[in-house]
## 1
Amino acid sequence: MQYLLYKDLSEEEIENLIKKMIEICKEKGIKVTTQRILIFKELAKKTKEHPAAEDIYEALKDKVYGLSLSTVYRALNTFESLGLVRRIPTADGKAHFEIANEPHGHFICQRCGKVKDIESAHLNNLLKEEVKKQGFNPTECNFVCYGLCKECSN
Amino acid sequence: MQYLLYKDLSEEEIENLIKKMIEICKEKGIKVTTQRILIFKELAKKTKEHPAAEDIYEALKDKVYGLSLSTVYRALNTFESLGLVRRIPTADGKAHFEIANEPHGHFICQRCGKVKDIESAHLNNLLKEEVKKQGFNPTECNFVCYGLCKECSN
DNA sequence: ATTTCTGCAAAATTTTTGCAAGAGG
DNA sequence: CCTCTTGCAAAAATTTTGCAGAAAT
């Protein structure tokens, strides 16, 4: 049961995430709009790729009549503050996003900028403990590695 | 000898870093200008604070006649590509910088956005090994933690 | 001398916001 | 209905760039 994060989410997992998202929205009085559902779903499909807002917009703009980039930003910000989505600040000057699943690390390619997941539950726990020892009170710990991805090493 | 990172660099350490920077610039045919020296020095003084380009600009603009923000950006980019300075992408939409000293983690406050260092040499080594096992070839690994800093928890 | 760098202003990029019209509960 | 959301355009914010003059080697 390791390295689960390398797998795309199944259709079923995506549907379940959407249900959870709808539930949480209703709970908080946030309206469940077509745009929000489709944006969330698109991110869920691509979570392994850690898309930027623009990527999601590009994927949806022909499917959702009149969709605007600002709606994508607004939806992602909303999901982030609900804890459903995580923002990954990268060195390319754009914010990238992923579904907030179990914590894990990110490997960022210094040439092509792609972000890949690193399985790290064990290390994340170690890290959290150590950080607490040093007097912080973390809600979330991640790690980031830089280097060349397989494709770019050739 | 732990938690060294919490200390500001001493005058002497800063002077040594500057010497090293000058050496590397000369080696690479990069010119040693007043602006570059002062920008590097200002970052060295503030490295614990992880300033953004603008912070460095603000600190220097009255001391360096006519200094412009773009020069600060250009200098920081140059230093980064020389491996002298590290860029820390944060969630506030600005790039922050630090002197590229020994690898360590960062704690980012979710309320005030301040970035603090976490001593983590041991964990960084563990991490690098684990990441290699997973098939990556990292040049550098860092930790990032989110939470509320001491000041903001009150 | 030659090359590189700086300052300025302008451009490019990413993200946010104001507002009127539209959709959700 | 009332509130929240969207789309659009405009604004804001951060970072990069072109170019002429200045500085470094």
## 2
Amino acid sequence: MPLPHTEAPGYLVSNLASRGVRMTRQRRAILGIIETASHHLDAAQILRKAQKQEPEVDRVTIYRTLSLLKRHGLIDELDLMHLQGEKHFYERKTPREHVHMTCLRCGRVTEFESRLFDGLKKQVQKECRFQIAVARMEIGGYCSSCRA
Amino acid sequence: MPLPHTEAPGYLVSNLASRGVRMTRQRRAILGIIETASHHLDAAQILRKAQKQEPEVDRVTIYRTLSLLKRHGLIDELDLMHLQGEKHFYERKTPREHVHMTCLRCGRVTEFESRLFDGLKKQVQKECRFQIAVARMEIGGYCSSCRA
DNA sequence: AGTCACGATGCAACCAGTTGCAACAATGCG
DNA sequence: CGCATTGTTGCAACTGGTTGCATCGTGACT
Ligand SMILES: [Mn+2]
Ligand SMILES: [Mn+2]
Ligand SMILES: [Zn+2]
Ligand SMILES: [Zn+2]
């Protein structure tokens, strides 16, 4: 699950600041973590990392920052098949949208880009007259090394 | 969000029974509710309905029955964009797989069947050598009556 | 730099979902 | 039809996420 570092550093901070969102120490820390993350992180992981920088951050602030980012369409939220409890995972939104596959045996998460995914979105926009803000496709099953 | 009643009544009970799963009063009630539901239900709604039939059912039993059904691939779990909290919604799995669109303004949920969805699944199976057990596509945005 | 308004934070109380465990009951067998 | 086995249930304790509220601090304007 490699997330390429395509964006300029601090782009989440600048993006939000340019929309008039206030920047606090806590937010800067959280945004930095999400921006430079190399895998899909859950809220607890983000909290732990944030507290290394800003020991006073509360988990409430993590959740509130995550919904801020969701509201602004800057991150995607994933279930990854809720393989370990109900928690959700987060990744910054990139121009390359992709499908997530989670192996129900080994837990490995793989990403896959497809024309058909974009095509399906276009079809929904057109045929259902539905204006898409977020689209998420998640698959559970067995990866090539795990299936019998 | 109309769910057609295609299956024979009691098919969840028979299906599970034939796999050697024990049938209890509580389960019978819960399965009946899911089977005859006309919309996507969340755990709390299922609990309330079940308690009308079997006042003693505990919410734990609802959650355990839901994971049983998920394990056996008999229901699908949906986020519906987590529009109201973190809760999940459930629907019985039908032969007609569909995409779910949730309007972020009015909350309306619509379903859409598409060849491209099946095509995308086939592509994943083939190109990624990934054996699919569950596939879920969820879209958030603005329905035709809500967009400006 | 000093003031201010209002958005953001932390805390505590709350609610939804999970897990451990002892009591219970569905099913199969004598 | 009663008995034993073993899976299922309800309860209580717990964990993860949310909400209300008083306090705090950012960023705008002087
Ligand atoms: Mn979810
Ligand atoms: Mn549906
Ligand atoms: Zn695997
Ligand atoms: Zn709408």
## 3
Amino acid sequence: MAAEKQFAYDGLAMAQVRVRFAPSPTGYLHVGGARTALFNWLFARQQGGVFLLRIEDTDADRSRPELTEAVLEGLRWLELDWDEGPYHQSERLPLYRAVADRLRAGGHAYPCFCKPEELEQRRQAAEKTGKPWKYDGRCRALTEADIKARAGQPHALRFRVPEGGETSFDDVVYGQVSVSHDEIEDFVLLRSDALPTYHLGVVADDLDMRITHVIRGADHLSNTPKQILLYRALGETPPVFAHAPLILGPDRTRLSKRHGATSVTAYGEEGFLPEAFRNFLALLGWSPGEDTELMPTEELVRRFRLENVGRTNAVFDRSKLEWFNGEYLRTQPLARLLSYVEAELRRQGLWRDEWGPEASGRDWFLRAVEMLRPRVRLLADFSQWARAFFSDAFDYDPEAVKKFLRDDRLVELLPQVQEALAGLQEWTHDEIERAVRGVAERAGVKAALVINAARVGVTGQAVAPPLFTTMELLGQKTVVSRLQRLVNQLPALTR
RNA sequence: GGCGCCAUGGUGCAACGGCUAGCACGGCAGUCUUUCAAGCUGCAGAUCCGGGUUCGAUUCCCGGUGGCGCUACCA
């Protein structure tokens, strides 16, 4: 917090916090980006600050609008709303050129006429001799006359890194980080097509947008000194930096397609709740400092501290994410959960209007969801595992068949169960139980035998909510006809 | 290769230099039950290695090892 106070902007005693999420449009919002966005968002919301979005699309082939749209979609799914933007760097080119001019005027930048191919050659030559390559500064010493003479020739603009010494900064997460100037080459600011490179773009924009805190992935840690150098050369005060550790796949390498779902939107499609996802993501690299883990978003906002962000890379553990999701599925206010379930059923074409808010079957729908939710981990479970609750068109799970339908006695027993249930005058839990258990008793078999078999017949699954409650909910007609169906198919199923 | 950063059970996180290193996920076992992926109970499992500093290091320092990142006219 001390660090937060020492930077005042535009003469304000206490500047308003302004943070940004600045993805390059890759066509999707991946988990790492999502976590960065979340940290920025949490911090902004907590500080009453501004969270803005900036698209870093100075690279020509990244400026296709649909690539950006996919990133925005990910943010929307995560429900991370932004206050400004999205700004597009591709639309702010004059700013970068102006900043480049300032640098050039101050003697901090110089034109470089080396051709990329030549550089590549010199680099390879150097590497062959085992020497670490760094731009050799060939154009550094060009005089104004040299430059004038070559005017019109294609050239890049390079930053003049001070000779000797080092640059260090105080990262909120990583502490003091220093890099010797010997390690930093005269990097390119403007490419020969006059488009800015990343370093010039971020610094110019963060300055122009009055960003107070740069919260981003640790992959930018090593590059930060270059940016500090730029701030200094411009005579500007750098923002506060806070780098968050990287998120890795289960094999401890960078998260990629290999590791399954790479876009957060894909997690949405799989049936994860945004709030559960946020909770899980927040705990990847951050901890409230004690053992609490389940925290609704408001609490995350309240407790988030940049100084409690850790420094070690974290592995994305899907099974824990699933646990979080199950936890939220179970504890979510029912009304809210219903709309998620409705969306899921609609996606799968299982939705019926009679279950709608004011409709006649609403109460039934509510009971079904309430009954199902203790054993669900993904929204998709409602349409897959629990499909039989919402549709007559379901298959018998082969495992369930193997486990509960093998017994020969069922050929005799199931028709009896069906008959007993068909004859019931009152369709209540207790009456159903009496009827089913009665069949087992008269046959001298354990009740579990018929119960388990009937469960498969009625739900298609080995696992489902308690059978008699399930039957009561589904209704006599449905249950009886499903048992009839099972009786018919039994020989074929168990053959 | 050079530079930077990091290092607590399989995974995510805790532990003013001081109890038998805590919690959660996962695993295993038991229990409840009509099924369990729900509940409850229990068990196994970690301070990377080596030196220092200290009465005492998970914690501080140095070295090693390992991992990750950066090293582009990508971002």
## 4
Amino acid sequence: MHEASRREKLREIAALGVDPWGGRFDDRQWIGDIRARAAEVTYRLESGGELPLPELQAEGFDLRAWKSQHGAGTIVGPAVRAAGRIVLQRPTGKLIFLNIRDWTGDIQLFVGQKQVGEADFALAKQFDLGDIVGVDGQLGYTNTGELTIFAEKLHFLCKAVEPPPEKHHGLTDPELRQRMRYLDLIYTPGVLLRFLDRTKIVHAIRRTLAADGFVEVEGPTLHAIAGGAAARPFITHHNTLDIHLYLRIALELHLKRLLVGGMERVYELGRVYRNEGISPRHNPEFTMLEVYQAFGNYETMMELTERMILAALDAIGGGYRRPWGDAVIDFAPPFARATYDELVQQHAGVAADDHAALARLARELGFPPEGKHLDVIKSFVFEEHVEPRLTGPVFVLDYPASICPLTKRCRDNPQRAQRFELFIQGMEIANAYTELNDPDLQEELFRTQLEGLPEDESMARMDHDFVRALRHGMPPAGGLGVGIDRLVMLLTGAQSIREVILFPLLRPVD
RNA sequence: GAGGAUGUAGCUCAGUCGGUAGAGCAACGGACUUUUAAUCCGUAGGUCGCGGGUUCGAGCCCCGCCAUCCUCACCA
């Protein structure tokens, strides 16, 4: 079978006195850095003097013709050391061309029998696609103008006993791409870069927060009460205490306790878990950022949100206009701002206080409005009719107070909550409040929220300790939540959340 | 949870009307010191997702199950 010949080569490599699993390999340069040294390659004329080589990327460039034009000489370049996985191999008798890949790029190796000697050439004949090899050699160009390392010494660094995917098509089966992410990262163009961009985005966010004096903390992920959001939790059990515990569905309530405790600027960037459906925009575990700033409000958070996103874009490069599917998202600041009611008027064509018109529209959209509060009807219309039209980026301001249980009301209008959500391509990316710090009102709002829940969500409980913490005094504060996975989707052009989560949840197979 | 699509060699994919299972890449043997998905000659490789059924005969038709993808519902 396919493994047998590779295992045979493994034995033959060992028989050559080489460890087929490799070892420490110091002082090698990344292929991207080596490629950047192309300009150091020159043409040394026998008649004396050195010529720089022309731009060799040009299609159809013929180095042979160029050389005969300029007279006899040799190509000289810097000595380099590289390591990478063999992704293509073209043996032509006593000469082998290899393409190797590290996480910065690909480069061609020229391995000639005469040039590397009998021993290394015997080793090179045992190479398979997928093996990891090292090389010492001179950077130069082949006759066809391809930047190439002309090997002088080869090093074997790791055998691949399994064959790689098809060399041209790679892995296309979406199931295999997720189950074998290690192959997807190597062989699907753009995948590794996207995940590296995710890291840069998260780092840019942390840098922005650190520069503003925020501290990062780690709250508990096992909660006795799953609070801070409305979602079904995962349930687990602690043996020694013999209690049910819930994986956290939000970061909010513990971070606010820290506000009470005097951590004036605090954030957590971490995983939350929601026992809900899986879709191109939902994974059961996903990454949230929550930020709390004492003596700020939701406008403080809006300004911070915009700065973090711009810093993330700067970190990955490519400007503020980003393709996303068939659309282009324009992140050029400042992001648009509009009130909730204005957007209802604009996109639904209905005045936000016109109860009858909203009810009519809700019914048309399949939502029976009878006996429902105006804000509930409006909220339905907003979600169904307005949100999909918010291609954004747009900050939606001043939500109806009755759907915001953790939010301070607007001073001039208690029917409005000091809350914004940032929408981009119909997706909610950020959600921020001026945090409610009135303990009695908070307790009352929790209570009415719990009363409204259906039977099967009765695991939601009042968090009395949180309310007690508020009674000890939480400074007025702005709070922000950001869905990191979705933000990364938008910034990197990914159409599915599975393209930005390294190991999305899949049903296990034996 | 509902509906639709897909599942054939390690990978990417064909497979007509129900009649002996196909290609390319990868692999193996041979030729080749400037190739570019190298090329040329030859060889080998299959539980057609799993389980039933219909039929003289099933990759193909029927039933059930499994997995993945998409849409919807829940949700961010």
